[in-house]
Amino acid sequence: MLLTYQFKLNPTPEQVVILETWGELLRRHWNYALGERLDWLRRTRSQIDRCSLVSEPIGEIPDKPDYYTQASNLKQTKELFADYKNIYADCQQQNLMRLDKAWKRWLIPDKKGKRGGKPRFKKRGDISSFTFPRVNSLKAGAHLTGNILKLSKIGEIEVILHRPIPDGFEIKQATILNKADGWYVSFSLEDKTVPELLPIDEIKTATGIDVGLEKFLTTAEGQSIEVPQYYRKAQSTLARQQRKLARKVKGSKNYCKQANKVALTHLHVARQRKEFHYQVAHWLVNSYDLIVFENLNIRGLARTRLGKSILDVAWGAFLQIMEAVAVRRGKHTTGVDPRGTSINCSSCGERVEKTLSVRVHSCSCGLVIDRDWNSALNLLKRGSVGLPIPGCGGLDVSQPVKQQVSYVNLRCSRYTACS
């Protein structure tokens, strides 16, 4: 299993200039390589007797560009532009690999028939990271010794190791990236001690989670977590910073300073949200052996009038974090179809039609519970079919038919167990 540990760097002013120069040169090379691919595509996408001579250039059609042909041209690039000789060769190759992956995601659909967006030309500052694919090996361009990271053609940079790299982990690659508050390095670590998944017959606790906007999630036991709304709370501060930015002369030093303040606000919100996701994920994985969630079309839901709130809670990012935490603990997660989970009664199975504004599920069988709780119970039913889990068939007859959802107050660290 590959893990990513990110640490803050403390480069000198001279090294900052070199890092920024590398990003700019790699951006130009990305744009040139992308232009080659798009030029070939425009010339070969229609039959030769039907090609428009007005919108398309005429002449000899170039060979199809791919990663290997463009990587072989790096030597010629360094002869024409001497600045590229100062960039470590593996970083330039990794830059072309990124473009090749983006190109294939756009043209070649995946197993589900979906494709990625069209690769775009990068503006100044868009490429703010580059990768050293080998670390601490014989021909590696990056070597980590203690808290000193030695990069080829850049020099030694101090790394602020706020947590130690575990023993037995092998550093596979290092990515240098620029954020609003400075430079960072992300180490890709290979962990060969990942525990095996818990056997199915040993699963003792299971739950279903229903995510929402009124409550971040509700479990099948009736526990709920409130939505923190980090972006909503920061909107007034962000609007004030953006108004100040609009009054600055674009491209001036004051404009750049104010733009960095706006970026810092966004970065703070993103870090708050990520920390919250890790806290909830660790709490769930510590409490249950099996977690059943709903496979939502989050991209489609984000296009509705509730798009801002949906993107603020970031269900997709949370589910990815929860699945990664579960794998490291040897726990199970599974996604099920969410259709009908909030309409069907978890006790008798009867359909109880209700609008989105109705937050209480009231069935003719006498069951009156929170709408999200009812949905979580249905999710648990669907995800635990065939599993030897007691008490997963909805509410027991001995339980009262009117209950209230209890809220969980999370106060835990990302790396410690939640109570």
Automatic annotation (TrEMBL):
Residues 201-303 form the Probable transposase IS891/IS1136/IS1341 domain. Residues 315-379 form the Cas12f1-like TNB domain. The keyword DNA-binding applies. Residues 1-44 form the Transposase putative helix-turn-helix domain. The keyword Metal-binding applies. InterPro entries: Cas12f1-like_TNB (IPR010095), Transposase (IPR001959), Transposase_put_HTH (IPR021027). Keywords: DNA recombination, DNA-binding, Metal-binding, Transposition, Zinc. In the C-terminal section; belongs to the transposase 35 family. This is Transposase.
